[in-house]
Amino acid sequence: MSENKSFRLYDSLEFFWRKKIWFIIIPVIAALIGYGASFLVPSNGKYVGKSTVFTGSVKLEALTNPDHIMTQYGKHFTGKTEVFVPTRSYIKTETYGDTEEQVKNELNQFNEQLLAGLMNQHDKVIGGTEKYASIQAERIETLKTTIEDYKKLLIESDNVTVINNFTTLLSAAEMDLTNALATEQRVRNDVIAYEKPSIAGETRVGQTETYGTQGAIAGFILGILLAILSLSMWKYLIDARNYRKA
């Protein structure tokens, strides 16, 4: 029984060796089919463009929400486009098209419009903050003048009641001046620390990935398996025919 099994194994291997050309023909044909089939996979476009916009310190929900961004600034896109907001400070965009120029122009237009919206909000915040700082600066000058007036009146007056009243007013004015100076400094620091939106790097446009290589490799592997299966079936039919003749 053992010798019979060994003989059959040897007989099969010998058959495979005689038909070894099929281990080349079938996998090569399958690889070519896989390569060709890969081009039938639906594609979003021949070119893909990617860009990143830094939002700076602008954290307004309307300018960092992907759906709102596409509705507001992405109506001109002709190909599939997606907007991602991986963090609150970056907006990433990916768009597809048939030509490199088309993708680049559409993406640049989107970035310019989005950046303009971000800068508009940035300028509003900076403008409002600087206006508040100016108001504090004016208040500081007024308080300084008032404090000097109080000090003069205290020097000139001999009335105890008047002195007590102006002493209280002077103390309150000095406290207000301290608070106003601290507020102005804090507001000025906020203006300095408020980051400006910008385009983070260049807009990148390149050809979309094709799956020809992957399709060819997958087809070649399947072709080897198909060759083994086909030759095994071929050998089985030959053995069955010989058995019936015997």
Describe the secondary structure blueprint for this structure.
Layout: H1 2-18, H2 22-38, E1 47-54, H3 66-73, E2 81-87, E3 90-97, H4 100-156, H5 160-193, E4 198-199, E5 204-207, H6 212-245
Antiparallel strand pairs: 1-3, 1-4, 1-5, 2-3
Helix pairs in contact: 2-6, 4-5
Cα-atom radius of gyration: 40 Å
- The arrangement of helices and strands along the chain is HHEHEEHHEEH
Largest beta-sheet details: 5 strands, antiparallel
Q: How far apart are the termini?
A: 20 Å
Instruction: Find the count of extended strands (DSSP E, 2+ residues).
Output: 5
Count up the helices: 6
Shape: rod-shaped
DSSP strand content? 5-15%
Content-based structural category: alpha+beta
> Percent helix among the residues?
55-70%
Question: Could you list the spans in which at least 5 consecutive residues all have pLDDT below 50?
Answer: none
For the residues shown, what is the average pLDDT? 84
